Amino acid sequence: MTRQLLRRETLGDMEASYWLSEDGRQVGLELNPAHWEARREAKRQHVDSLVQLRLRGDDFPFGFANGHTMRGGASVGRFGYEKQELVRDGGTTRIVTALAAPGGLCVEHHLNYREGEPGVEVRSVFRNGGDAPVTLEMLSSFSLCGITPYAPMDAPNSLTLHRLGSKWSDEGRLISDAIEDLLLEPSWSGHGAFSEKFGQVGSLPVRRWFPFAAVEDRVSGVVWGAQLHASASWQMEAYRRDDGLCLSGGLADYDFGHWAKVVQPGEAFETPAAHLSACVGDVDALCARLTRMQKRALSKLPRPDRLPVVFNEFCTTWGAPSQRRLGELLPALRGRDIDYFVIDCGWYAQPGKSWELNMGDWTVNADQFPDGLGAAARAIRDAGMRPGLWFEPEICGREADVFEGQAAHQLTRFGAPITAGVRRFWDMRDPWVREYLREKVIEPLSENGFEYVKIDCNESIGVGCDGAESLGEGLRRDIAASQDFFREIRARIPNILIEDCASGGHRLEPSFLGLCQLASATDSHEQQELPIIAANLHRAMLPEQSLIWAVLRRGDSIRRLVWSVAATFLGVMCLSGDVEALSAEQWAVVERGIAFYRRAEGVIRDGVTVRHGPRIASYRHPRGWQAVERTSPDGGAKLVVGHVFDGVPERMAIPVGEEYVLERVFAEDDGAVAHEGGMLAFALPANGAFAALLKRRA
Length: 698
Prior knowledge:
Helix content is 20%, strand content 35%. It is an alpha+beta fold. The chain has three domains: 3-293, Beta-galactosidase, Chain A, domain 5; 299-395 and 431-458 and 496-520, Aldolase class I (TIM Barrel, Alpha-Beta Barrel), CATH 3.20.20; 609-696, Mu homology domain, subdomain B (Immunoglobulin-like). Strands 5, 6, 7, 8, 10, 11, 13, 14, 15, 19 and 20 form an eleven-stranded antiparallel β-sheet that branches. Strand 2 (14-21) and strand 3 (27-33) form a beta hairpin. Helix 9 packs parallel to helix 10 (471-492). The radius of gyration is 26 Å and the shape is globular. The chain starts with a strand and ends with a strand.
């Protein structure tokens, strides 16, 4: 298993090491913390290719792996090292590694590093320079090998695989498994190849798992991780056949997601990107680096001068907005420090039809809005806010005229329309559909002066659709067309603020987050798990994009109002509920919370997160407490947001450092929070909450 170093390149505080197999054909990639080379241990490991692929017709992998993984089969062996090029252009370093196979086939591995970023971006490109079509059944976006180089042998009792589990209203749960518990120890003889393969299939990419994985060496204190740009079906694999653990991922392959792609002579196919990083620290340190990688895409979008406060009337009218209700709500909000007012679903529901079943026709309900949407938007602006509107453009509901009337333009599987419950799906590749949605979605937004649009999607297409070489490729193309529609909205209305929503948080991944300034964190708007989920999402996305709801009820106690409003400090504040019925005392609490949010904006936007408190197992019936500490990059300020559930001690405390002073508190009783001897102490009852802003001493 002799190998030789092809290249080692320092990239900020990381090093990328390219290893060449003894026969000079295979190239493997390691990404490690810089200046840790002296700690490397001897290992018994093969060079595992930095690109994993399968071509239809080639032999499947050996070692009891066929059916579990498509990695490591004969296709990988066909491609041998051809060349590597390094280009530095300004602050960017690009390394392109080319692997070639007989018949004019080539696959390139692209690694890009931008100076100052805490990770790298990688992708693969397959090129068919031959004279016959080739069918891909797998092509990885990334593949790392040699985890961990800092422990002898197979690193027994050292490695943990971290993943972020997800389901509706339970997004971002950290799930950590010892590698041994996943059956990823090498066998006694070295025979066999073993894989823990996971991902999701369908058009809601954050459903079951986020497209994220990290491997932590708990002994050496180093962690490696990846986040995929995964707009639809995707997979990741932790893979083992010897002492070195491998981590790879990309589009869901044929076995997992029915994906196959025909590449014609002269054509190329490029995978979605992946962000990779490695650092000294724990999984939260790694996640902070990967989420920082998302800032570049966000910086290219037009954004408000400050983090907004949004009001959305969904938890007020429950799908029955109207001109009359706006007349009741707007006076209650006028003059308050709120930036946007969003009209949510139901404005199109025709008499006798449900808002949940009538999407797709997009005809304004004249009974609810007799003067039209333009008048509603003007009324919102007159009240000092910017108007927003809800759409679910990729969907049509069972009670819409187009559900049956335009079935020819809907997605099919094996010739039959794909119907999931009460919804069907427009074929976003269809020029007729795109023109229809321009007329029904983009033009009403533009003509009526809406400055915010909430784009929702409340069902999954499933494994795929007709119209391509495979069901999975049909799905990939359709979702790519959906993302093009997002871009078209922005091209037509350049400064519009787009909220990405998919039953709450089902699209919280980098490719969709890179198209939208905001994203709905979860549909768990009023439940006890809301702050738990909001804190979880700091590992997956930027809090400055994470829309957290505070639903304000007329019967809320001061404690409950503080609990709700404090949760929004974990992201971007979104208000809803019975705002026209709140008392002056209740509004005083809310406005004090808005003022605190404005004061803490810089730390919310740019800080780094550490979570304190015991692990909370049940989100529906939480016990214990959590405190989320977020520190500005220069260490000048800290924001701590705490929530207390059942079964807590009388007094809790977290270390924040003696160099800080307590500047501002938001709590039911501000005196319940104190900074003593470098500890932030708080004594709160069950279902209590607080927020504290600390500044470094001058």
